[in-house]
Amino acid sequence: DLTIILCMPIPHKPANTEVGIHEVIKNRWSPRSFDETYEIENDKITSILEAARWSPSSKNSQPWRFLVGKRNDENFKAFSSTLSGFNTEWAPNASAMILVCAYGNPVTKDEIFDSGLAVGSITFQIYSMGLFAHQMAGFSKNKIKELFNLSEDFEPLVIIAVGKISDSTKLVKDLEERELAPRTRKSLDELM
Predict the structure, then answer these.
(1) What is the CA radius of gyration of the chain?
(2) How far apart are CA 80 and CA 69, in angstroms?
């Protein structure tokens, strides 16, 4: 009985922190090499959105709104058609994409800030489930509004690619180099 183990270049990129932080935060990062065969289950999508639902918000207004597309469904195809730049090369391999919008009349910085908190909850929930997320601002917000007939009450903020990480050699050379590069951050002194 022979077992063959394939060794793929899938980087583990823990943060080089100045002090101890939670493992989910330390090990979370945003890959581009997604497994194009992995099908995410509906209950995992529900869990991801439930984490966002319990995010903090000013006056408990909960101004975030989500639209989910799973690979090959109409929403996913529509999201993919709005992507720009190098996102068009790797994001369609994700298992799902989640559009996050701020909702308000009008949408103010408060709604955008609170929606960002929900995105943080989404990101950490995804990682805690053994999956990965990559947030993208590189998409046409106008095309999203047109495709989904969104009123002025909705401000598209980000599309989050979700899935299992895969072999980085599947990426074009420039993206593979970025995938394998060490993670860096400004020092705490630069942020205070």
Answers:
(1) 18
(2) 10
Q: pTM for the complete prediction?
A: 0.92
pLDDT digits (tens, 9 = 90+) for 136-145: 999 999 999 9
pLDDT at 132 over 80: yes
Using alpha carbons, list the distances in angstroms from residue 9 to 18, 138, 165.
27, 26, 10
* Strands 132-136 and 154-163, bridge-based pairing: antiparallel
Q: Is the pLDDT of residue 7 over 60?
A: no
Q: At what angle do helices 42-53 and 109-128 cross, to 10 degrees?
A: 140
Q: Is 168 helix (H, G, I), strand (E, B) or coil?
A: helix
- Helix then strand then coil, in percent of the chain rounded to 5, is 40, 20, 40
Per-residue pLDDT, averaged over 154-173, amounts to 94
Position 80, amino acid: S
Alpha carbons 192 and 178: distance in angstroms, whole number: 28
pLDDT at 10: 65
Q: Where are the beta strands (DSSP E) in 38-78?
A: 64-70
Q: How far is CA 47 from CA 10, 22, 43, 53, in A?
A: 25, 20, 6, 10
β pairing state of 154-163 and 64-70: unpaired
Separation CA 79–CA 85 (nearest Å)? 14
